[in-house]
Amino acid sequence: MYYAREPGKINHMRYDTLAQMLTLGNIRAGNKMIVMETCAGLVLGAMMERMGGFGSIIQLYPGGGPVRAATACFGFPKSFLSGLYDFPLNKVDSLLNGTFSAEMLSSEPKDSASIEESNGTVEEKQTSEQENEDNMAEASESNYPKEQETMEIVSQDPKYKEPKERGSKKDYIQEKQRRQEEQRKRHLEAAALLSERNADGLIIASRFHPTPLLLSLLDFVAPSRPFVVYCQYKEPLLECYTKLRERGGVINLRVSETWLRNYQVLPDRSHPKLLMSGGGGYLLSGFTVAMDNLKADASLKSNSSTLELHKTEEPAAKKRKCPESDF
Q1: pTM, whole model, 2 decimals?
Q2: Domains in the chain, ordered, with CATH?
Q3: Residue 1: which of 22, 19, 15 has the closest Cα?
C-alpha cells in the first residue's frame, strides 16, 4: 500500500527489496538486531513479524523520537513490544568513545517538561483572552433577555473552568514525566545492550548517507554476522563499498538490485504488463569478521624479517666465464 500510494515515505522501497533485506539479514527468532530506518517503521514492523516476539530489536532514531506509523498497522500484541528498544542516534558516538552516562539522558526530560509547562501557561493565557473577546462580542450583539445573557456569560467565563483545567494540567504533566522516566530507563537498557557489541545483525534503510552510519554502527555487531544497507540510489552504496574495502573487517561484499516484472495470466493472453516499476532500490550486503590488527602486524613483520634473512643468506649469483678465443 505504501509503495503504491506514497512511495516517498518508505524511500521508494519495493516489496521484493524488503523481502531481500529480511533474507540477507538473517532475521529470525531469538536474534539481537540493530535497525536504523526512516521508512515510517515499515522495516521495523517486518522484522518484528519475522522474529515473532522472540529476541530483541534496538531501533536507532534521529530527531526527537522514533516514527512507527507503519509498525502500528501490524497490530502486534504487547508481548512483541517488550523486546523493542529505541536509542537516539546522536548518543552513538558517546557510546563508542566510552563517555556515555545516565546523566546525558536524565537532563533531557526535565528541560522538555519545563518547556511544556511554560508553553502551557502561555497557551492558557491566549485562550482565556480569546474567550473573553468572544464573550464580549456575543454579549453586545445578541438580542436575548438579560437573564439568558448573564447565564451564558457565567457559563463561558474561564474563571469557572480554572480548577478543572489546572487539575487536568497537573495530571498531564505528571503523566508526561512518568512516560519520560520510563523512556529514560528503556534508553539505558538499550545502551547496555549496545555496549555489549554482540548484535546478530544490522539493517540500515534511511534517507541519510549510508557511509557514516554503517562505519559507526558496525562496531556494535559481533563477528561473522550479516549486515544489509538499503539506498534508493546506487552511487552512495558504491562509495560505502569502497570505504568498507579500505577499512577491512568485512567479507562477501555485494551490491545488488532485484528486478520485478508483473505478468498478466489469461487464456491465450498471457504477457508481461506494459506498466511496471523501473527500480526498487539497491542493497549492499556483507558479513563482519574479526580484526586483530596487532597480531596481523606482528605476523607481517616476522614474515618480512624472515624474507630479508633469506635474501641476505642466499649466495650471490656466479658469473659465467666466457671462453677466451685466440684471434
Answers
A1: 0.68
A2: 1-104+179-288 (3.40.50.150)
A3: 15
